[in-house]
Every structure is written in C-alpha cells, then in structure tokens.
Amino acid sequence: xxxxxxxxxxxxxxxxxxxxxxxxxxxxxxxxxxxxxxxxxxxxxxxxxxxxxxxxxxxxxxxxxxxxxxxxxxxxxxxxxxxxxxxxxxxxxxxxxxxxxxxxxxxxxxxxxxxxxxxxxxxxxxxxxxxxxxxxxxxxxxxxxxxxxxxxxxxxxxxxxxxxxxxxxxxxxxxxxxxxxxxxxxxxxxxxxxxxxxxxxxxxxxxxxxxxxxxxxxxxxxxxxxxxxxxxxxxxxxxxxxxxxxxxxxxxxxxxxxxxxxxxxxxxxxxxxxxxxxxxxxxxxxxxxxxxxxxxxxxxxxxxxxxxxxxxxxxxxxxxxxxxxxxxxxxxxxxxxxxxxxxxxxxxxxxxxxxxxxxxxxxxxxxxxxxxxxxxxxxxxxxxxxxxxxxxxxxx
Length: 396
Fold this sequence. Notes:
This protein is of the alpha/beta class. It folds into two domains: 5-126, 3-Layer(aba) Sandwich (Rossmann fold); 136-390, Hypothetical protein af1432 (Orthogonal Bundle), CATH 1.10.3210. It contains 21 helices and five strands. It has helices at 13-22, 36-45, 62-72, 87-95, 109-126, 129-136, 146-156, 161-169, 172-182, 194-201, 203-220, 224-248, 259-262, 266-273, 275-284, 292-299, 304-314, 319-327, 339-355, 367-373, 377-387, and strands at residues 5-9, 29-33, 50-54, 77-82, 101-104. The chain has a five-stranded parallel β-sheet, sandwiched between helices. Helix 15 crosses helix 16 (292-299).
C-alpha cells in the first residue's frame, strides 16, 4: 500500500523540529514548511493526503493556504492548527469547509498521532472499494438540497448574516424549524427573528437543519417513520448538549451542535431504498429479543451508521459530525477521534427513544461506556430525569 503523505506547516521552526522528531520513524511520508508559499511548492511535487497548518502565519496565513489547497487539491484533508484564542476563526473555517477538523496548541504527542491515525482510518473506511460497491448497489442516494447548496456558496463567499437570513425567509418550513430549534432548551434563545436565530445557532448548525429537512422531504414527508425519526433526531440533539455539559463539565463546542440531528441519517437512506425491510425490522422489534442493530445486520448488507458516515463524509461535513454518525454505537472505537461527542450521542440516542416512548428501538446501554465515564447507570438516569422538563418534542 502506498504510504500516506502529511504536510505540516508552521512558521515556528521549533514546532516543526518537534514534529520532525515525533514522526521520524512513522509509517507516513512527512513534509514540513514554514510558510504558505513553500507549502504550495511542496504540494506541486509531493503526494500529500493530509495538510495540517497553523492558522496564524505572516504573509499567507493558514486560512488562505487551506482555501488554495481546497481549490487545487480538493481531496486533501485539511486540518487547522491554532491556539485557543483563535477558536472563533477556527469554527468559521469549519463552517466554510476550509478545514475538516481542528487541533489546538499545545498538543499531546500521543494524542496527535492517534488523531492522524483516526483521520486516515476514517478516509480509508469511508472510501474503501468494498463500501463503494455496497453504496453503488443502492438504488438512490439522497442528493444535497438546493437550499443547502446555495447556503454553502453564500457562507464560502462570506455573505453577511442578514443576506443569508433573507434566503431562509423564502422557505417557511426551514424558517420555522430554525426558529423552533433556536428557541428550544438546546440554545435557550427567545426570538422570532431568523437573523437572531442564526446568530444563536451558528451557520454550521443551520446547514445541518437544512440538510436534514431536505433529505427527510426527499424520502417521504407523509411516512410515519419519517415523523418518528424527526422527533428522534431533534430530541437526541437537545439531549446531546445537556448530557455533554453535565458529564464533561464544559460547554459543548459550537461545531458539535448538530451531531444529534444527523447521527441517524443513514436510516433515511434505508427507508428510501429498503422501506419493506425497515418495516419488517420495526415489526420484529415488537416480539424479538434482538436489538434494532442486530435485526438490521440480519436484514441488510450495510448498517445505518456506515451509510450515515459515508454520506456526511461525502458531503464534506466536519469530521466530528461524521464520527458521531459512524461511531454512535461504538463510541470507544480506537480510531474515533472525538470520543467525547460519540459517547454523548450514544447516551442521548438511548434516552431519546425512552423519552419518546419508543424503547423498542433502544440498543442496551453500553457497560464499556459507563466504565469509561466511571459512572453508574442510575446517575445517568438521574441526569435524564432532570432534563425531561426542558425537552421540546418537535413535530414534523
């Protein structure tokens, strides 16, 4: 197998020296540049699969470098490296799809190596020939909604929020959903203005609402399963923030904000292409001792987690959200980079079905996750009880 190429870019020579030492005997071909122009020269002649660049550099900064690489080498995975003071700019780079994920300085060496391994695992898994053949056998994959494509173009063109809000105002269903999510306990805003709602939610989360809405519509608006899945998506999204902040005792990063909304999106593809099989699984759950995931594996060639991860990766959604879809039933997977988010979505997914009275869709609570968190299940049950009054069930 051809070795993967990594290009590190940082204007601080000491950082580049430290990276050289760390990767001197690695399985990767590594390259180093201390400015954007040198980085672009290296990319002309070397086979680069992953770019990790500092964002604050004299001359061409990391954002401009990632923009040029995206235009010229779109298949290269782009990672932003920065200090915590640049977090707002980092999130903007994720919204504009300049970066797929981010790393903050200073980093732990072992953590950095694991993250890089995880990036390549994700790319290889979701772009493997086997998966491609399975995906290719599916009759119809959801396409990106026109409104989503327009919004992405506007974000990349750095249009102001007032211009974007006018676009959303043209679609009453989207406007309504954005406002309901903004005014839910997840964000706690109290506004009837799309402009203000976007400010509360953030553009990356508005994108996810439009994406989910468009795909739900394309499957079948009147389908009873679609209505239930929308309730599950939105409830899981609300619970994700509540559990994250309670378990990890910190604010949920803005880029995580739509993980619950998109985590089960693979099920929509199953319903669209295998409606009878999905109905059979749902009926069998009434009498079977097997879980939804077990029945799904018996009936289908591909699970909803892999389908969801593939689609979100294909559409260029930030890596944390892709991982939440791919690993929400296996959050302690060694290759999972954002374990805190995958664990949170795993737990929120479990309690969402309970809150909605659809326990038959629950997979058992993972004992490994409880051990990892050093929590008893009754503690999580207590958290869930305290959240119930804050959750708003959102009808389709």
